[in-house]
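Example 9 (inverse folding). The structure is encoded as follows.
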């Protein structure tokens, strides 16, 4: 169910937030009219856009479950947006009871909402403010370091976030800071919109929709996305449609109008 929850102190309700737009796609209530207006513009050319968002969310759930079942008990969710159940700590803790999770977002309104939503959870699950364009600030954040131990394997999640960075923002460096700091045995999970086999009209309309938001929508080729995994060993099945990554039902599906590619890499 969607609805305007009323602005938080300091919230910018004049500019659409990608995090709150994503919340709208997923059927959440933590969004404002400005977010819904921009989201509806994007959905005008992607009628099944909410299904695509849910497929991306399901990729996140499967990736976290896979990492936890491979021994990862600490996670950094970069560009987390507003937690939607099942969220990262719920999935991780269904496998490892005391898994640690830090949610990071550069929207202070979102961060405040996340802290409220996590208020009943223990101190090993936290929400912090951080801008992925300045990854060292996130990696060195005192609150994050109280939860995350980089001397042990960690799972770093860049799910539906790197396509909000232009090449000038250097998303490759944003990922590299974490992959270089992470110890061997760590994993990085990513999903990203792609220009390959995507209708130019769809890309144009989505770009215009996000011009009204606080971050642009940047489409990249599969090869450009694969470069983000440099220094990592891609886990089978590699970089694929998010709906196809290790899903139990392998039946053939028609490609969506808006394509999300997802993959998980392991640091050797």
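The amino acid assigned to each position is listed next.
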């Amino acid at each position: 169910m969607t609805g305007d929850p009323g602005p938080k102190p300091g919230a910018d309700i004049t500019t659409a937030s990608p995090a709150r737009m994503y919340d709208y796609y997923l059927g959440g209530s933590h969004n404002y009219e400005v977010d819904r207006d921009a989201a509806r513009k994007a959905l005008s050319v992607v009628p099944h856009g909410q299904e695509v968002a849910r497929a991306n969310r399901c990729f996140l759930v499967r990736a976290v479950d896979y990492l936890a079942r491979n021994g990862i008990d600490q996670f950094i969710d970069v560009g987390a947006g507003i937690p939607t159940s099942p969220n990262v700590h719920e999935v991780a803790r269904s496998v490892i009871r005391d898994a640690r999770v830090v949610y990071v977002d550069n929207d202070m309104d979102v961060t405040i909402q996340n802290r409220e939503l996590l208020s009943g959870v223990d101190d090993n699950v936290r929400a912090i403010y951080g801008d992925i364009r300045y990854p060292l600030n996130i990696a060195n954040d005192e609150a994050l370091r109280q939860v995350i131990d980089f001397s042990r394997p960690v799972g770093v999640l860049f799910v539906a976030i790197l396509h909000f960075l232009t090449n000038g923002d250097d998303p490759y460096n944003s990922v590299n800071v974490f992959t270089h700091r992470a110890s061997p045995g760590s994993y990085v999970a990513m999903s990203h919109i792609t220009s390959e086999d995507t209708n130019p009209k769809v890309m144009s309309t989505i770009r215009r929709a996000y011009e009204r938001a606080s971050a642009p929508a940047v489409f990249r080729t599969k090869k450009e996305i694969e470069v983000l995994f440099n220094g990592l060993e891609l886990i089978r099945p590699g970089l694929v449609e998010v709906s196809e990554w290790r899903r139990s039902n392998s039946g053939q599906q028609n490609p969506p109008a808006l394509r999300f590619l997802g993959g998980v890499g392991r640091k050797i």
